[in-house]
Amino acid sequence: MLANIVVEKFIEGGWVMWPILATFFLALCVILDRMVWWSRLHASLQNEKQEQARNAIGTGDFNIAWELTKKNEDPYLKNLAEGMTHAHTSMLAAMQLHATRIIEHSEARMWVLSTLITLAPLLGLFGTVVGIMGSFSFIGDEQLAASKVSGGIGEALIATACGIAIAILCLLPYNFFRKRVSVLRGSLERWINHTELLVKSAKEHGHDLEIFAANQAKR
């Protein structure tokens, strides 16, 4: 019953409902893709090992820190591994470049949602204009005027309502994911800065990460 009503309203909305339907499915695919990505990121986090790696770096136990980062999908530990690998050149630059790649992955396809937030209402407005224009063509015929004009207005309202609904569907997840990206960016920055301080502290106590990295590169 509900499916029949939806199909009926879809047909009443006119041909512009097809591109609106396409935007709906596109938005749904992007939202699901981002949900899966963030879920996998959250599942890969190993806070305990992160803390162990930080402590090992601070005390100069670079071998322990290196072992903790090996074969690990935690983005922070992978970031540390990238920094340790290039410590003999520039640890900070290597970690920042790796963090940039993580942020780029977190922002992937977000531009699609941003575009649909604007495009969907415009398609709905276009449907409104088309529907009203169609209604005016029957004004001269008194017998058909009332039913055709009301039908055109109904078509316009359906298209507009669907366009606005899709924009709302995109807007809420878009802002949510943008907030997650902002939090991730800040967290990575704190991780990198903290690691840099720990490496400097270890160096002051006679533990040089650059020497360790150079030795690893020779192996």
What does this protein structure show overall?
The protein is mostly helical and 219 residues long. It has helices spanning 2-12, 17-44, 47-59, 62-69, 75-85, 91-106, 110-136, 142-204, 209-218. Helix 6 runs antiparallel to helix 8 (142-204). The longest helix is centred in the C-terminal third of the chain and has 63 residues, at 142-204. The chain is rod-shaped.
Task: Describe this structure in a few short sentences.
With 219 residues, the chain is mostly helical. Helix content is 85%, strand content 0%.
Beta-strand residue fraction: under 5%
Q: Determine the N-to-C terminus distance.
A: 70 Å
Low-confidence stretches: none
Radius of gyration: 28 Å
How many H/I helices? 9
State the total count of DSSP E strands: 0
Class by helix and strand content? mainly alpha
Mean pLDDT: 86
Please render the helix and strand layout as text:
Blueprint (H helix, E strand, L loop, with lengths): L1 H11 L4 H28 L2 H13 L2 H8 L5 H11 L5 H16 L3 H27 L5 H63 L4 H10 L1
Helix pairs in contact: 2-7, 2-8, 3-4, 3-8, 5-6, 6-8, 7-8
Question: What key attributes describe this structure?
Answer:
219 residues; mainly alpha; 85% helix
